[in-house]
Amino acid sequence: MRKLKIDWVDLEAAFHTEMDIMMMRNFLDLETGEIIGISDEIANYLELEGEEIEPGLSVWMQEEIKKARQVEEGYRTRYIRIPEEDSHEAYRDMEHFITTVRDDRLRDRLWRAISGRGAFRYFRDVLAEYPAERERWLVFSDRCSKKRILEWLESVGIELINPLELPEVPELATAEVEETDDKELLEDLTLLLLYLSSWEEQSAPDLTVRRAWKGYLFEVLDALEEKGYIGQSRRAKSLTLTEEGVQRARELAAFYIPDAR
Q: Most buried of 27, 77, 228, 244 (most Cβ within 10 A)?
């Protein structure tokens, strides 16, 4: 095994480079442990210009071209390509994480969130409503990513002089899980009841809103408003359900009363 000291932050950044967006290829120097990034612009210049460097180029671009030429000449001997992380692996991380979620309702929402297009965005949107699980996901995802990088290093025969400890994924305490479950259940059922007892009202010639009477706990209504599910005024006796609130309420209705029409 070749022993190297590698800047872990630079190595992670290289793995997470989105090639189609950043237009950058990253290489590892097997002698120094340095991470070298070469843009498509520099690579294309090398192909077009050959050995000679145009004298009118800026100093920084001349230096980049020299580095790119060194990588080209020493490729597979001194320099190796750092692979970009595969989006399929990140998707499998989400699938694996969902299996660790204890809350049945949250687990069901996450499965549905990743079932179609925009899976990553919808997954993050759902977790944004569950701060504790969101934090757990961030650590879980980071651990999975770091583990893949360590496995790649081992596969190319590299041992880190500066070893990395994988972060431990926190477990929610039982009391915390129960308290979170109770609070979220109360909010979900309140939103569902608001929706089931709501009515449509035309507030303008081209605007129809869905309204419902307030008769529920103020702290629950405030939590629903904070999530963007309802809009309310302290003086009014009724509230409005937002588009997001109606969509979420319909999801709850499908979950709790699937046979309802």
A: 27
Angle between helical axes of 87-98 and 131-155 (0-180°, round to 10): 130
In a domain? residue 3: no
CB neighbours of residue 216 within 10 Å:
18
Spatial distance between the Cα atoms of 163 and 212, rounded to a whole number of angstroms: 58
Within 13 Å and on the Cβ side, how many CA atoms surround 66? Answer: 7
Of the spans 47-51, 124-128, 171-175, which averages the highest pLDDT?
124-128
Residues 185 and 156 occupy one common structural domain: no
Strand partners, 55: none
Task: Give the up-direction half-sphere exposure of residue 76: CA atoms within 13 A in the CB hemisphere.
Answer: 0
Range of the domain at 141: 87-172
Backbone angles phi, psi at 3, to 5 degrees: -95, 130
- Do residues 188 and 121 both lie within one domain? no
pLDDT tops 60 at residue 82 = yes
pLDDT tens digits, one per residue of 99-117: 888 888 888 889 989 988 8
How far, in Å, CA of 200 to CA of 151, rounded?
57
pLDDT confidence of residue 21: 55
Q: What is the dihedral of CA 245, 248, 250, 253, to 10 degrees?
A: -120
Q: How many CA atoms lie within 13 A of 152 on its CB side?
A: 18
What sections of 118-258 are H helices per DSSP? Answer: 119-127, 131-155, 174-196, 218-226, 243-256
Q: Which pTM value belongs to this model?
A: 0.61
CA distances from 255 to 138, 244, 258 (A): 27, 17, 6
- Give the C-alpha separation, 120 to 20, whole Å: 18
